[in-house]
Write a structure and sequence with these properties.
By secondary structure, the protein is of the alpha/beta class. The protein has one domain: Rossmann fold (3-Layer(aba) Sandwich). The chain is 38% helix and 15% strand. The protein contains 14 helices and 15 strands. The strands form five sheets. Strands 3-2-1-4-5-7-12 form a seven-stranded parallel β-sheet, sandwiched between helices. A two-stranded parallel ribbon has the order 6-15. The chain has a two-stranded parallel sheet with strand order 8-11. Helix 2 (53-56) links the parallel strand 2 and strand 3 (67-71). Helix 1 packs across helix 9. It binds nicotinamide-adenine-dinucleotide (NAD) and uridine-5'-diphosphate-glucuronic acid (UGA). Uridine-5'-diphosphate-glucuronic acid binds next to helix 8 and strand 9. InterPro entries: Arna-like_SDR_e (IPR045869), Epimerase_deHydtase (IPR001509), Lipid_A_modif_metabolic_enz (IPR050177), NAD(P)-bd_dom_sf (IPR036291). Residues 17-287 form the NAD-dependent epimerase/dehydratase domain. It catalyses: UDP-alpha-D-glucuronate + H(+) = UDP-alpha-D-xylose + CO2; UDP-alpha-D-glucuronate + H(+) = UDP-alpha-D-apiose + CO2. Its EC number is 4.1.1.35.
Length: 386
């Protein structure tokens, strides 16, 4: 392999990366990228490894020996510190991060996103290890504009809705709105990491993903996850399309999101990994401001794309409205709009997203159809005995 250089033209040093939560959606794509395009080594830690099995076996894979899976739960495993000590860089992805859990399992959510991350931060700080920690765009909560009257012209002014790492406030709902348990725990761990940097010199980067989506995200209920489970919106809508059911629009599907293709986002993470001088001490929004839609528009686009890739007809009523109480239960609340400001990541890493929403849905739904359509047909034909 020719010498690989960083953004400043310096050769990139070979790293051992301790990746916690490597078996999840983002972890699986990051492992894939690191194995196929870099010479770095990965210590992959997770409770599960189904999504990275294709990278671990067989022994004849070109990267055999560069990725090592350690099955462990960071809540209670004394091996964690030793594995962190073996690494040059720690990436923490482990978390409960599905909104259906935030209001129904708030304790697990807070423990997972704050308490369980504490030893990781502590071991990094004590052992002088660089940390890339995954936070979330949910730390911004609601936009300032959402508190203005519906017809206020200020709602059109980006100053009232674009989310900036260093100036936007974090606006959450009341404590009964347990939806915010996740965002609040993530905000506190960000503050702790920032303070470790300021007081003890921890080298850190915080990533705030804005709705990264693509293949291997979450699960399809009843196929590779619990039948009653509620994954994030991409998997919910994929499941509905695969089963020829109407897509459920929570509270009218008026909330807005910007979706980014996982492969674009992973490019940004690789730049952070390989350019520590440009990434350390920063919090980065990683999203695609050009791909904004309401959830209703997302449903309509997914319906069209799925018809194209599957060759199936569209239902007469492709969507149905449900209340958030019915869908998520008591204590749900929502972010109204999420547009990332890209100034900091642009300046530090020169990174920009590339893939349009239509294109990313086309490749993702092609994957969903290829992976699940047969299994769904079989499960419908022969319901499991329960
Ligand atoms: N996907 C997104 O768009 C998105 C957006 C915002 C924030 N994030 C953040 O990025 C991170 C990764 O998200 P993801 O989408 O890949 O989620 P994911 O659920 O697919 O992956 C998380 C992984 O962490 C593992 N894990 C959780 N608790 C663990 C523990 N105690 N010990 C060991 N492993 C544990 C899980 O088994 C899972 O494989 C999370 O911190 C999440 O909050 C993701
Ligand atoms: O991905 C992110 O950037 C962050 O946002 C997500 O939160 P959210 O976008 O609200 O979660 P989704 O499940 O993807 O829902 C998006 C929107 O679709 C709606 N929805 C979801 C599912 C469904 O079947 N129907 C439906 O209308 C939700 O109410 C919400 O308004 C999750 O909190 C995290 O994964 C992450 O931190």
């Amino acid at each position: 392999m020719a010498t690989r250089t960083d953004l400043d033209g310096r050769p990139i040093k070979l790293m051992t990366i301790c990746m916690i939560g490597a078996g999840g959606f983002i972890g699986s794509h990051l492992c894939e990228k690191l194995m196929s395009e870099t010479p770095h080594k990965v210590l992959a830690l997770d409770v599960y490894n189904d999504k990275i099995k294709h990278l671990l076996e067989p022994d004849s894979l070109p990267w055999a020996g560069r990725i090592q899976f350690h099955r462990l739960n960071i809540k209670h495993d004394s091996r964690l510190e030793g594995l962190i000590k073996m690494a040059d860089l720690v990436i923490n992805l482990a978390a409960i991060c599905t909104p259906a859990d935030y209001n129904t399992r708030p304790l697990d959510t807070i423990y997972s996103n704050f308490i369980d991350a504490l030893p990781v931060v502590k071991y990094c700080s004590e052992n002088n290890k660089r940390l890339i920690h995954f936070s979330t765009c949910e730390v911004y909560g609601k936009t300032i504009g959402s508190f203005l009257p519906k017809d206020s012209p200020l709602r059109q002014d980006p100053a009232y809705y674009v989310l900036k790492e260093d100036t936007s406030p974090c606006i959450f709902g009341s404590i009964e709105k347990q939806r915010w348990s996740y965002a609040c725990a993530k905000q506190l761990i960000e503050r702790l990491i920032y303070a470790e940097g300021a007081e003890n010199g921890l080298e850190f980067t915080i990533v705030r993903p804005f709705n990264w989506i693509g293949p291997r995200m979450d699960f399809i209920p009843g196929i590779d996850g619990p039948s009653e489970g509620v994954p994030r919106v991409l998997a919910c809508f994929s499941n509905n399309l695969l089963r020829r059911e109407p897509l459920k629009l929570v509270d009218g599907g008026e909330s807005q999101r910007t979706f980014i293709y996982i492969k674009d986002a992973i490019e940004a993470v690789l730049l952070m990994i390989e350019n520590p001088d440009r990434a350390n001490g920063h919090i980065f929004n990683v999203g695609n401001p050009n791909n904004e839609v309401t959830v209703r528009q997302l449903a309509e686009m997914m319906t069209k794309v799925y018809a194209k890739v599957s060759g199936e007809t569209v239902l007469e009523s492709p969507t149905v409205d449900v209340s958030s109480k019915e869908f998520y239960g008591e204590g749900y609340d929502d972010s109204d709009k999420r547009i990332p400001d890209m100034t900091i990541i642009n300046k530090q890493l020169g990174w920009n997203p590339k893939t349009s929403l239509w294109d990313l849905l086309e490749s993702t739904l092609t994957y969903q159809h290829r992976t699940y359509a047969e299994a769904i047909k079989k499960s419908i034909a022969k319901p499991s005995a329960s």
